[in-house]
Structure prediction request, 204 residues.
Amino acid sequence: MTDRRTVAVSGVGRTPAVPDVMRLEVGVAVVEPNVSAAIERAGTSLQAVLDALVAAGIPRADLSTSALSVYPQHRAGDDPGIAGYEVTSMLTVTVRDLDAAGSMLTAAAEAGGDDLRVHNVALTVDDPSGPLKAARDAAFADARERADQYARLCGATLGPVLEISEGSSGPGPSPRMVGLAAAMPVEAGEQQVTVAVNVVFELV
Prediction:
């Protein structure tokens, strides 16, 4: 009885995907001599920012509190006592209309003034299932082409698939400007959705 002959290969598939959603943290940070004043001012500033975001078209379902902190501010030098308190409050914002992202950020800046803080801006594809499917198709085709070449080199033909597993997958940035919005430029760019697949074929 002869051992089954096999060939194991890896294939990689990539497909472009233009981000259609921006997620970021928008909020305020204030410093006042006492805690109550800091909390009151932060609350007033954050409410102004929140109202501006809603007025700019962000649904409340796409706004959620992500951080709230209170820290003492210490004096420098020989007197290390507490000089005041810093209060930071942040919202996670999902922007689904990238053309309006610039005007949204401008509205938030006008409402929050010098208290405004913006962190962790990320552009992503809201539903990556389509690009992932196309990348899987390309990855399997790449694996089959490699396996077919090896089969020919050893005087065999490619048989059925015996094993298949998906390796790491994910987006990789490839810059591409898609437009500017209002006073604050927002560049969506382009991502490469990548899928790696490991396939074992029988040789016949």
About this structure: The CA atoms of residues 28 and 115 lie 5 Å apart.
